[in-house]
Amino acid sequence: IIISLIRLDNGIELKLNDAHVHFSFGLRVVESAGSCSWFYSKPQRTAVKSEHCCWFPRDFFFEAAASFLCCFCSPPRIKDEPDDDGFYASPKEDSKPLKRPREDDDVKACFQGEGNTVPGSNRFFLILQDSKAKKAKSKDKKVPEADKRKKPKKEEEQKWKWWEEERYPEGIKWKFLEHKGPVFAPPYEPLPENVKFYYDGKVMKLSTKAEEVATFFAKMLDHEYTTKEIFRKNFFKDWRKEMTPEEKSTITNLSKCDFTHMSQYFKAQTEARKQMSKEEKQKIKDENERLLKEYGYCVMDNHKERIANFKIEPPGLFRGRGNHPKMGMLKRRIMPEDIIINCSKDSKIPPPPPGHKWKEVRHDNKVTWLVSWTENIQGSIKYIMLNPSSRIKGEKDWQKYETARRLKKCVDKIRNQYREDWKSKEMKVRQRAVALYFIDKLALRAGNEKEEGETADTVGCCSLRVEHIKLHPELDGQEYVVEFDFLGKDSIRYYNKVPVEKRVFKNLQLFMENKQPEDDLFDRLNTSILNKHLQDLMEGLTAKVFRTYNASITLQQQLKELTNPDDNIPAKILSYNRANRAVAILCNHQRAPPKTFEKSMMNLQSKIDAKKEQLADARRELKSAKADAKVRRDEKSKKSVESKKKAVQRIEEQLMKLEVQATDREENKQIALSTSKLNYLDPRISVAWCKKWGIPIEKIYNKTQREKFAWAIDMAEEDFEF
DNA sequence: AGTCGGACTTAGCATTTATTCG
DNA sequence: CGAATAAATGCTAAGTCCGACT
Questions:
Q1: What SS3 class is residue A63?
Q2: In the 3-class helix/strand/coil scheme, how is A638-661 assigned residue by residue?
Q3: Which end of chain A is more exposed for a tag (fewer CB within 10 A), N or C?
Q4: Which of A706, A696, A428, A421 is nearest to A570 (CA)?
C-alpha cells in the first residue's frame, strides 16, 4: 500500500509503502509523519523530538530511490568524506570525527540551506507532500512488479553501519531510548489434584506457595545436587519460609518428603510436549515470535535494536557453579514492584502490568541498561541490556580490541620493565612484577578478592594462595618449574606445569617463606594496586587487556604458521580451528566432554570406514572401466571412465572431509572454542584470514556471530594486522 | 588504602532448533 | 517421515573494573 508520496526538491517523486516507511523511520516518527515533514540522509537528534523530521540511512535512501522512483533518474551519489587511507579510526584512539558526523544540527538551519545537497556534506532533503492531494496521481503511476518483490530483500541488506558514525562523547550512552519493559515469568500453575506429595508416607496437600517451591525441587530430583548436604539444607530452610504455620509444624524433615510423584508428572509433561502435533508446536512458536516482536526490541537513537534478555529470570532454586555455599536457596519471583525502568523522558514509558507499579522509572543516559532489579541470592543487580549486535555493545567491543592493539605497541617495554622489577628492593613491586608476568605469560585472570562464604572458593592471579602452586627446582629435565593447580572462574580447574625464569622462581620461594598453605601468595598485592600500576604504563591498560592481547596475537601468529596455501577449504578450516584451539588452551576454556562424545566419535569412525569401502569400490570400477575402454576404444566407454574418475575424486574428497572432521572433534573433546571466539579474538583477524584465503565467512562465523561482528566483516580487509 | 555498590564482560551448561540419517 | 545427532541459541552465574565514599 502506498501511503506516502515524496517529492524531492528537484521534482522527482518517490512512493513509499508502509513497510518501507516503518523500516527506515522508526516507529514514533512514522506515526506523526503528517502532511509535511523533513527528511535527512543522516540521523538528527533533534528530529526525534520535533516529530516533523526524520531521516533515512543514506545508502538506503539512494537504494530506495532506485527502486521506487517512478520516473527513474540516477540520484547524485554523494561521496562520504574522503576515504583517508581505508583505515577506520578506532573508537578510543582518535578523537577526530569518523565518517558521518552526528552532531546536533539545527533543523531550521538545514531547511534554509542552499539546496537539497550541501556541497561536501551528505545531507539530502526531501519534502513529504500532502499524501491526500497526490493520491490520485500516484494511482496511475504503477510501481513495477519486480521492484515490489525485490524490496524486502533490500531492507534486509540495509543494515545500519554505526561504525561509520561519530561516537558520543565519553559517558553518554544514548540520547533517546524507548522500550516496552520486561516480560515477566508466567505465573505459577498449581498441580492437578491427582498429583500428590507425600510426607512420611502420607498424602499431603500443600498450599500454593509451598507447592510451587516443592515443584522446583521435584524438577531437579534427578540431579546429583539434590543429594548434596548444603543444597538440601539451603532448600529446606527457604522452603519452610514459604509454608503455612501448619505445614511448617508438620514438615520438619526433608528426608521424609516424597517428591517422586510430582517428578514423574513433570517428566510426563516434558514427554507430552515432545509429542505435540506440528500445529501445536507451531502455535507456541508463533506466540514466542509475537513476544519477541513486541518486547524483544527497543528504539535507541533512531534505530530499532535487539534486546538480549528481555525475559525476567523465572523463580527457581539457585545452583551456583562448583562448590557454592548458597546452592539450593530459593530464587524468588521478580515482581513489577522490584523493577527499575530506564528510558528517555520523552519516550513512551512502558506501563506496568495491570494492578502493579514499577519500583522506579529513571532516565539515566549514562548507562546502557533498560531494566534492572536486585536479585535475592547475592543481593546483586541484574540488568536487561542490548544484544551484542547493537551499536552500544559493538562499539565497546571494537574499543576493547583497539586497547589490546595499543598494548601490542608497548608490550615489549612493559615486559622489560617487569623483568627489572623482579629485582626491586620493594616487596610490593616484586610481587606486582611476578603477578604481571603470570598474567602476561599464562593469560591468568586478575583475581579479585571475594567475600568468604558467599561464593565458591575460586581464585585468579592476585588471589592465588601458597597451596595453589608447587615449586620444582627441577622436573622432567626442566629447570625451575612451577606447578599450578587451582580452581578459577566457574570453578574450572587450572592445572599447568610451567618452566619460569630463575629470578621468578627465586622470588616465589621468597614470597612463600614462613607462610601457611592458605595464606596469600601475593600478600602485598591486589587487583586495584596492579591495575593502578598498569594505568600508569598505558592509558586504559588493565589486567584483562593482556588476555585479549595474548589471545588475539596468538591467533594471528598461529594462523600464519598453520595455514597451508595448497590446502583445500576444509583443511584450511581445520588449521583455523587449530589456531583457535591454541588460544582456547591458553585461556583455559574447558568444557565437560559432551555426554555422547564417545558414541558420536564411533559413529563418525564407522562413517569413515564406510566411505573407505566406497572408495575402494569406486576405484575397482574405475579400473575395470579403464580396461574396458582399452578394449572397446569407443566414445561411450571413454565417457564412462571419465565419470568413474570423477566419482573416485568426489569420494576421496568426502573421505578427507570426514577425516578432518574426526581429527577436529577429537582435539576438541575438552576444549571450548566459542568463548575465545566470542570474547577474545579480534574478529578482524578472522575476517582478514577468510578474505586472504577465499574462505566464506559463514564457515567461521554462524549467523549470530556474523551479526555481532558485522563491524569487523565490513571493515577488515585482507591485509588487516592486529 | 580499603570497602562497596554498580555496570558491564565473560563463562559454561541447558535447552531448542536445524540437519542428517535410516 | 520420525528419530538421532549436531549446531545454535538461551540462560544466568561469575568474573573484571570503576568510582564514590570512608
A1: helix
A2: HHHHHHHHHHHHHHHHHHHHHHHH
A3: N
A4: A696
Cβ A691 vs Cβ A522: under 8 Å:
no
Alpha-carbon dihedral of residues A597, A603, A608, A611, nearest 10 degrees?
-160
The number of residues making up chain A comes to: 722
Question: Is pTM, for the whole model, over 0.85?
Answer: no
Distance from the Cα of residue A284 to its chain's centroid:
25
| Residue A186 DSSP symbol | P
Q: What is the dihedral of CA A559, A565, A571, A576, to 10 degrees?
A: 10
The neighbour count for residue A626, using CB atoms within 10 Å, is: 15
Residue A89 has pLDDT above 80, yes or no: no
Residue written as cell 530430583?
A: A221
Residues 67-106 of A with CB under 7 A from strand B: none
Give the model confidence (pLDDT) of A10-30 as tens digits: 344 444 433 333 223 322 222
Helix (H) or strand (E) holding A423: none
A440-452 confidence digits (pLDDT tens)? 999 999 999 998 8
Q: Which three cell numbers stand for residue A37?
A: 515533514
C-alpha span between A1 and A18 (Å, rounded): 6
Q: What DSSP element (H or E) covers A48?
A: helix A45-50
The mean pLDDT of A560-588, rounded to a whole number, is 92
DSSP-based three-state secondary structure for A674: helix
pLDDT the model gives residue A469: 95
- The catalytic residue positions of A are 680
Comparing CA positions, the residue from A140, A327, A138 lying closest to residue A226 is A327
Confidence of residue A661 (pLDDT cuts 50, 70, 90): confident
B14 C1' – A370 CA distance, angstroms? 26
Q: Is the CB of A367 under 7 A from strand B?
A: yes
Angle at CA of residue A393, ends A583 and A159, nearest 5°: 105
**Dihedral class, residue A200 (left if φ above 0, else alpha if ψ from -120 to 50, else beta):** left
Classify residue A33 as left (phi > 0), alpha (psi -120 to 50) or beta.
Answer: beta
Q: Beta strand A13-17 with A38-40: parallel, antiparallel or unpaired? A: unpaired
Whole-number Å distance between alpha carbons of A181 and A312: 10
A450 CA → B4 C1’, Å? 12
Provide CB contacts within 8 A for A270, sequence distance 6+: none
Q: What's the confidence (pLDDT) of residue A16?
A: 45
Provide the positions of strand C that have an atom within 7 A of a protein CB: 5-19
Distance A175 CA to C22 C1' (A): 34
Place of cell 508428572: A265
Q: Which residues are paired to A177 by β-bridges?
A: A300
How far apart are alpha carbons A215 and A261 in whole angstroms?
11
Q: Nearest CA to the C1' of C2 belongs to which residue?
A: A275
Burial of residue A487, with CB atoms counted within 10 A of its CB: 0-12 exposed, 13-18 middle, 19 or more buried: middle
Question: According to the 3-state scheme, what is the secondary structure of A258-314?
Answer: ECHHHHHHHHHHHHHHHHCCHHHHHHHHHHHHHHHHHHCEEEECCEEEEECCCECCC
Assess contact for A75 and A60: CB atoms under 8 A. Answer: no
**Cα–Cα dist A341/A348, whole Å:** 12
Q: What are the backbone angles phi and psi of residue A115, rounded to the nearest 5°?
A: -175, -160
d(CA A669, CA A665): 6
Helices and strands, number each (H, E), in chain A: 24, 20
Q: What percent of chain A has pLDDT over 90?
A: 59
